[in-house]
């Protein structure tokens, strides 16, 4: 699949910008804070219904304006599709695909498959478990669109259970209904655990292969999923035993909202003992794995978004990354063209103060 055209109206620092993309390689160059990442963000938003930079949709509306609009024309399975995303201040985003309004934003997922590679994601190994869960949840969502519905259900039930626990501090009789919430949490939670486990198991061989190429067979990488609870019985026992503690804390101590993922290099835990270079290589290997996994599932490559990765990767890793750019549409942002001069064909855009000009 590939994006043919993007139109940005009052989005971030763009007033009215149309961008005609090449179906393979597109490079956006310019100084910092000119609007390069805003292009990446608009595509990410069109794929996953949310930004990777802010939790507030209204942050993406141009200063002193009341709304934004994104229009995306993209080819999927050789068919032209059109997506329109609009937002007015004080309202929720509205999305239309081929003229049909979506009832739920979660229905966007799976229409435009992307893989994002940004400086923040290079630090994922060292960050908190909650950040890693979010990182892998995004990957899984694109493979299993129903996963997002399970996550929404789980988080809603978890919030209701936590509210009950807080109220029970004052009125313990409310705990009479805790079993109802426990069973609902277990039912959806184990579905999430099973999907996460299935996903990680399905990519292990691909990840090993990709990392062998990057490390020239000098390192073995392994990714392990660490579920907080493994099955229904364990989940139920832990919830039952922790009721008093949970009530005092005001939150639920056990469940997939406490899961983690651990990278290993040569059987050594990467977050504790790996070098910064090894951590970057492991994440890069995972991103290449993610691309291959999406292709294996849908027989079509996702769109690769590379946001300023040359600021964090050395030339050797950049060259290994560039070697993989010929199979899918890629959109790169950078401050100069130096690292990409060896590429044969690409479409080059200059970005300055919210204006994009194609370089001939």
What series of H and E elements makes up the topology? EEEHEEEEEHHHEHHEEHHEHEEE
Overall mean pLDDT: 93
Termini separation comes to 25 Å
Question: What overall geometry do the principal axes of the alpha carbons give?
Answer: globular
Fraction in helix: 25-40%
The radius of gyration over CA amounts to: 22 Å
Q: Strand portion, in percent? A: 15-25%
- Structural class, judged by helices and strands? alpha/beta
Low-confidence stretches: none
Tally of strands: 15
| Biggest sheet descriptor | 6 strands, antiparallel
How many distinct helices? 9
- The neighbouring-strand order within the major sheet is 2-1-4-5-6-7
Descriptive account of the structure:
This protein is of the alpha/beta class and 360 residues long. It is 39% helix and 24% strand. It is built from nine helices and 15 strands. The strands form three sheets. Strands 2-1-4-5-6-7 form a six-stranded antiparallel sheet, covered by helices on one side. It has a six-stranded mixed sheet with strand order 8-12-13-3-14-15, sandwiched between helices. A three-stranded antiparallel sheet has the order 9-10-11. A hairpin with a 2-residue loop joins strand 10 (260-265) and strand 11. Helix 4 (178-214) crosses helix 5 and helix 4 (178-214) packs across helix 8 (276-298). The radius of gyration is 22 Å and the shape is globular. The mean pLDDT is 93.
List keywords for this structure.
360 residues, alpha/beta, six-stranded mixed beta sheet, 9 helices
């Amino acid at each position: 699949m590939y994006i043919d055209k993007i139109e940005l109206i009052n989005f971030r620092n763009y007033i009215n910008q149309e961008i005609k993309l090449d179906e393979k390689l597109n490079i956006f160059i310019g100084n910092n804070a000119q609007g390069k990442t805003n292009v990446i963000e608009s595509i990410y938003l069109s794929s996953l219904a949310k930004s990777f930079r802010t939790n507030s949709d209204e942050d993406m509306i141009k200063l002193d304006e009341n709304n934004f609009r994104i229009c995306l024309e993209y080819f999927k399975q050789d068919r032209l599709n059109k997506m329109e995303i609009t937002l007015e201040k004080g309202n929720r985003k509205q999305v239309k695909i081929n003229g049909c309004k979506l009832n739920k934003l979660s229905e966007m997922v799976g229409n435009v498959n992307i893989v994002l590679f940004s400086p923040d994601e290079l630090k994922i190994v060292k960050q908190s478990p909650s950040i890693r869960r979010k990182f892998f949840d995004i990957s899984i969502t694109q493979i299993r669109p129903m996963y997002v519905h399970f996550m929404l259900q789980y988080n809603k039930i978890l919030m209701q259970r936590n509210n009950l626990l807080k109220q029970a501090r004052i009125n313990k009789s409310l705990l009479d209904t805790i079993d109802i919430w426990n069973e609902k949490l277990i039912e959806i939670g184990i579905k999430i655990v099973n999907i996460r486990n299935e996903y990680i198991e399905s990519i292990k061989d691909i990840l090993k292969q990709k990392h062998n190429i990057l490390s020239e067979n000098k390192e073995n990488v392994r990714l392990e999923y660490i579920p907080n609870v493994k099955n229904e019985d364990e989940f139920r026992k832990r919830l039952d035993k922790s009721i008093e503690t949970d009530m005092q804390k005001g939150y639920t101590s056990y469940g997939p909202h406490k899961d983690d993922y651990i990278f290993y290099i040569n059987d050594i835990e990467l977050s504790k003992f790996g070098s910064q270079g090894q951590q970057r290589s492991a994440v890069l290997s995972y991103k290449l794995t993610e691309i291959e996994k999406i292709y294996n599932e849908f027989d079509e490559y996702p769109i690769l978004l590379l946001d300023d990765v040359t600021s964090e990767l050395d030339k050797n890793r950049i060259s290994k990354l560039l070697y993989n750019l010929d199979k899918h549409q890629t959109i790169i942002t950078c401050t100069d063209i130096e690292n990409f001069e060896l590429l044969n064909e690409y479409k080059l855009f200059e970005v300055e103060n919210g204006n994009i000009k194609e370089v001939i």
